[in-house]
Amino acid sequence: MATLAEARQRAREAAWTVVREAEVEMRERSPSAAVGDDRHYCVAIADADGTIRALSRPILLGAVATAVRAILDTVGELSADEITITNDPAAGALHVQDFTVLAPLGDALGYAVACLHTADFGGDLLGGFNPRADSVWAEGAVIAPLRVGELGAAAELRRLLEFNTRLPDLLRRDLEAALTALGRLRERAGELVEALADAPAATSARVHELLAAGRDGSYRATTTVAHCCTGDAAEIALELTLADGAARLDLTGSAPAATGFVNASAAAAAFATLAPLVDWLEPAAVNAGLLDRVALTLPPGSVVAPPPSSPTGWGPYGTAAAIGGLVSDLLGQAGLEPCSIEHWTLAPPRRFHMPACDDPDCPFGNRGDGPPPVRRPPVY
Amino acid sequence: MGLDPITAQVVREYLDALAIEMSTIVERCAMHPLFNEVHDYSTGVFYYDHEQTHLIAMSLATAVPNHIIASSLSVDAAVATFGSELEDGDVVLLNDPYFGGTHNADWTLMTPVFLTTGDIIFPTVRAHMADSGGPVPSGYNPSAREVWQEAFRLTPLKLAARGEVRADVMRLLLRNTRIPTTLEGDVRAIMGACLVGRAKVRALIDKYGDEVVRDSMDAAMDYTERRFRAEIESWPDGTYRGEARLDHDSAGGRDLPIRCAVTVAGSEVTIDFAGSAAQSPGNVNSPYGNTASAAYAALCTAMPPDIPVNSGLFRAVHVQAPRGSVVNPIAPAPVMLATAHVNGEIGTAVMRALEQVVPDTCAAIANAGTLLSLAGVDERHDEYFVTVELGAFATNAGGAKGVDGWGGWPTPSSAIRFSTIEMLELQFPFTYHRFEYTTDTAAPGRWRGVPAFASELECMSDQQANVFVACVRNRPPGWVGGGEGAASWVRLNAGGEGEQLVEEAVTNARVPKGGRIATFKGGGGGWGDPWTRDPQLVLGDVLDDVYTVAFARDAFGVVISGTPPAVDLAATERLRSSRPSPVEGSAR
Q: Which of the four pLDDT bands, split at 50, 70 and 90, describes residue B223?
């Protein structure tokens, strides 16, 4: 006979499966290669305080947690029939191509969240990846968290979104896919929230156990993110402090925001910093309980939490990989298992044009040139 | 019972006065110098009668015709978007050039006042915002090849709903500008003007009743239509053709033709732009509303000034602009420069045609020639700024019959004014070393053009400049035998290392702290044969340093000598009778 703890764990895993099903539904409905191939999306459940209880793409814990917190802090109370939408890197988006849609779960139970990367949202270049951008507006238009009474009914806002992209059909269908996923979660809101009630506590305990295995102390490392097109060479400084089964990851000392698009939005920096730790856990066990044991400091105005006007297009890729690498190195120094963050922090594997600078070693020009992309089967 | 004509006139004048009051509110309350100094905005009152939108009143002395005439299309777009969802207390906002806008910098705000008949009156403001996001500060992006490369597109949107400002929508606006504090102040000033307009329209309706107000508006339009048609009927029937050319489109196109055929038939006028250049990849494309505005503005210039400007005028005029052309582009063509170029060329082409019909009332109608926008950090306040430097821009109003060029803006933008350099230096990190008219540059004519205007400013911080230069090969034209204006130019880092003469356009050029930008802006053309100009007026010009003695002799055939200088009438008569007018040489 199963113990109560085992039963609770099974309930949590079942709930996580529902979240994954919602994600699959979003992926299958979205026409975007960024969603279908690159898995640049996430579906999540948060409680009434905005604490993430479960998410379909564990690696994005830091990003989704940042987005939910920023949205709720900005828009305040939402009525049951409202949803909010944003792509604002200063409000939890990885970069302007990433839309987050958040909907309340009935009876103030919590929130359902869907994030996805859409192919274009205006700006200087199709696709938004702009090595020469010196502002976020050169990457795309910015939708600060916007209240929408059910998006389908809000014709004026739907029109506004569609007229600010070069690919309106694609954006429309991406957002419809996100809404479908949210609808799925809303249908089973009560059951999910109940099943996930003790998920953060269980995760917190597990993370404590894992961190306690390391050697207490402070560990520091730096790396530099270079951007030849704009002449940026921004240092990222990280200090890991391990004590009593808790960790503090402090990026204070990192360089001021770069001119160009190598800045990591706060969401990108949070995702990259937490990603190696997330890798220790079973996917179903990843939730905000991890943040009970891991404190994160991102200095405002820096390359890892840039001002709202800063471009951030490359943040979730090269810069995130650099941050994740630092974290992994320091975990290793502390006697913990070093983990790499997932491969998708590298550039998407399809061809897309970016205007390179004159530097023959410029890493950005015509990124992804090669054979035509092949749609890969989904990876679970 | 018929409408009392006195009451009808009172209602019309009330609405005119309201438009002026709204204009004053924007001027006094808005923050950016583009409003409180330069006056790049317009106010008006529109009327939707369930079939179409009519312009009823505008703040004539302070409105930019380009803005306000096109605004009726924006009101149409708002009504089409919201229909029965429009409610009392709503404020609708849009800037999209493909929703009746002129260019994306021009935001239109309006608020509905409902009549019991279901008709709607809209107090409306259209205003040029200094920055609306987009890759380039100010949106003047010569490199733009799509509208998204210019600014955030605001399709019709309720900024306020039932009297409450929507915080999230306001946040959205402020997130898509580099100068949110200023923009919020400007938007709130404009909303304030709309709300005062709403209260005053409501008061008018309360006093006179729906039917009297509605009938008075109809009467105002009928009156304008009658006067306008009567004027047109005095013109000989026929088709008159005009053409103007734009030097370039900042995308490789050169000498883009704008052609129009003005057909007068009885009391109707048709203006057809068939044969104009195809839609350009550059940012000079003119949305239909902007094109129609430029055409109407040219027509209004040819009319007696006491005809009230409202939609009654439009009833007799038909503007045809081929889709996919530079005068009626298909989205997503970029359009940001449209209000200057190709607007000026549209007006000039129409005026060229009208010159054949009503030569005594034709005059310079070309805008701009150079456009300079600057952005950077004002180190005195550690604040980002964006502005259009209008010292490099204005003074195109050339001569007209009976008056010399006066140095202001020509008709399509007539309410726009210079900033004073003292205010500019206070408000932006600029120090001016030159800001003056120049000698021997005014286009000759019986009524001469305005002298070219030269400025040189020093950037007091590192700044980004976007520059567009036109009217070099195709200079501001003269009329009825008057001479052309001078060619324009802009130099970046003038007199310093890396000095650059801007041939056509530059995007995001860096001007370092201490660098200078020199501009030279050709004035509008002259009117009439310069050799018929009153010699005493030429003497006055010489005494005012408008011309040198040598230029007066060469261009006007006026001989001036002695101390103090005086006209040698005998020598002048001999000279004038001995050789033809050198009008073709025009200004230097």
A: very high
